[in-house]
C-alpha cells in the first residue's frame, strides 16, 4: 500500500480542481439561492445585532487578513522552526504565500461580486471568490497542526478547527462573503496545507540529508 504522505500532491491537485469547478458552478449562478439563504440567516445588522458580537467578529476578521495575518505567519514559522527545523518553517511560510497568490489569481479569474444583502461590516478591496481569509486560515492552522509535536497535536487540531470556523462564520456574518466563497477558500487552503506537509516530510539531498533529515509528518 502506498503511504498516504506520498498521495498528498494528488489529493491537493484534486482539491484545487474542486475549487475551480466550484467557481464555475458559482459563476453559472447555480448556488445563488443556497448562498442567499445562508447569508440571510447569518448576516448581522447594525442596530439589530449585538454591537459586542459585531466588534468581536471584526477583530477576528482583522487578525485573519492583511498585515496581521503575515505577522502571525512569521511568528508561527519561527515557532515551527524550533519544533522541527528550517524545512518545516519554510513549508509553512511558503505554503501561506503561494496560497495567497493562488487565491488572488482565482479572485481575478472569477471576479465574483461581494454580497449586497447588508452594509458591509468589514473593509473589502477584492473580488469575493474564493475567500482569502478562509484560504489563509486553512493553510496556516492545518499545516501548523500537521507540523506540531505529538504532545501538542491535539491542541493544534482544536486550534485549527476553531480558527477555520471563526473565520468562516465571521466573513459571512459581517456580510462580506457568500458561503460558497468560504467553501472554496477552505478547500484551496487545505490543498496548500497538504502540499506544505508533503514537502516538509521529504528528505533533503546531499549533505543536508545527512545532517538534517526531514521529519515524518503524519496526516492526522
From TrEMBL:
InterPro entries recorded: PAP2/HPO (IPR000326), PAP2/HPO_sf (IPR036938)
Residue intervals passing through the bilayer: 12-33, 53-81, 88-110, 130-148, 155-176, 182-200
Residue ranges annotated for the Phosphatidic acid phosphatase type 2/haloperoxidase domain, each copy included: 88-197
SUPFAM superfamilies reported for this sequence: Acid phosphatase/Vanadium-dependent haloperoxidase (SSF48317)
Signal peptide: none
Recorded coiled-coil stretches: none
Pfam families given in the database record: PAP2 (PF01569)
Keywords: Membrane, Transmembrane, Transmembrane helix
CDD domains: PAP2_like_2
Name of the molecule in the record: Phosphatidic acid phosphatase type 2/haloperoxidase domain-containing protein
